[in-house]
Specification:
The complex is a heterodimer of chains A (113) and B (115).
Chain A lengths: L2 E3 L4 E5 L4 E3 L2 E3 L6 E7 L6 E7 L6 E3 L2 E6 L4 E6 L8 E8 L6 E2 L3 E6 L1
Chain B lengths: L4 E3 L2 E4 L5 E6 L6 E7 L6 E7 L2 E4 L8 E4 L6 E5 L8 E8 L9 E2 L3 E5 L1
Parallel strand pairs in B: 2-11
Antiparallel strand pairs in B: 1-3, 3-8, 4-5, 4-9, 5-6, 7-8, 9-10, 9-11
The chains are: A mainly beta (113), B mainly beta (115).
């Protein structure tokens, strides 16, 4: 069985602060993929990143960065210099051989001006 | 842009009515998924198609739920004899590949309210 845990239900920061969203996963598969999605108030899930279990290199894309550590089964997401437009619910998800996505319960990020 | 589209966006049904939710995936995407998202929760998997074949329906909560994709493109999720617990947002997603889990692109969802 697969499980994704996002322990932070809500986070509130002031604009320009850095913020890290935590994600811990469980799977028995040796090959798996991890994802982050953003769900703004409009409701549509927006794909942000996909990483496979063989690639533990951290990744940076603009103000976004991801830290994947297999040793702790974590795939954390950091937003640098947050902006009001970053306010959304962020979901971490896991996919293996079954191809379906198993989502965490999400973290509501509010960035205050 | 040619993203995933879903219709209707909102549906109100009286308990016991049948409903049909439509999904138009991104052109050329082989895989299609349906998810159910309850308020304040992450999406939960319902069913998966590869072309017209329904390869996994393990997430369908009861035999009142039925999905089809007869020509390998548009898909319909049908719920018979709706119950209040069926109230949720129903999300459709499509993906390019057949093998490795590629990223899934989601539609805006259909918000179903059963009264």
């Amino acid at each position: 069985a697969q499980k994704v845990t996002q322990a932070q239900t809500e986070i509130s920061v002031v604009e320009k602060e850095d913020v890290t969203l935590d994600c811990v996963y469980e799977t028995r598969d040796t090959t798996y993929y991890l994802f982050w999605y953003k769900q703004p108030p409009s409701g549509e899930l927006v794909f942000l990143i996909r990483r496979n279990s063989f690639d533990e290199q951290n990744e940076i894309s603009g103000r976004y960065s991801w830290n994947f550590q297999k040793s702790t089964s974590s795939f954390n997401f950091t937003i640098t210099a947050s902006q009001v437009v970053d306010s959304a619910v962020y979901f971490c998800a896991l996919s293996a051989i079954t191809r379906q996505l198993t989502f965490g319960s999400g973290t509501q990020l509010t960035v205050l001006p | 842009g040619a993203g995933v589209s879903q219709s209707p966006r909102y549906k109100v049904a009286k308990r016991g009515q049948d409903v049909a939710l439509r999904c138009d995936p991104i052109s050329g995407h082989v895989s299609l998924f349906w998810y159910q998202q309850a308020l304040g929760q992450g999406p939960e998997f319902l069913t998966y198609f590869q072309n017209e074949a329904q390869l996994d329906k393990s997430g369908l909560p009861s035999d009142r739920f039925f999905a089809e994709r007869p020509e390998g493109s548009v898909s319909t999720l049908k719920i018979q004899r709706t119950q209040q617990e069926d109230s949720a947002v129903y999300l459709c997603a499509s993906s390019f590949g057949r093998t490795a889990p590629y990223e899934q692109y989601f539609g805006p969802g259909t918000r179903l309210t059963v009264t």
